[in-house]
Amino acid sequence: MLLTVLSSCKKDDENSVVNADLVGTWAEEPSVEQFTFVFESNGQGSFQIKNCNTNIVEEVVSFTYVFNSKTSEILFSGFYSFSNSYIKFLSTTTIQFYRDVSFTDSWSKEMYKQ
Fold first, then answer.
1. Which of 20, 45, 78, 109 has the fewest CB atoms within 10 Å, i.e. is most exposed?
2. Entry pTM
């Protein structure tokens, strides 16, 4: 009798990985307020709101996240404003944030890698 066993060291859910292209600091163009996201490679991150008139950071929130590269969904934990979002990579330095999986919601924000 011949018995063959195959084993893998890969995670069961390889879709839920931190995408190297997402890691870094992303900010929208300054206007009255500027939103900035920082995504670290360990699944930690932060979000800040800066008042562009006074140049004062009004709020900073830390969070954890998981990015699913197949669905473009980011699942946030510890972030009261976002439970999940969706991202389109427009280029290596530009992403578009959406709250809706259809990528058509009016809230969408274009962010640039800093």
1. 20
2. 0.78
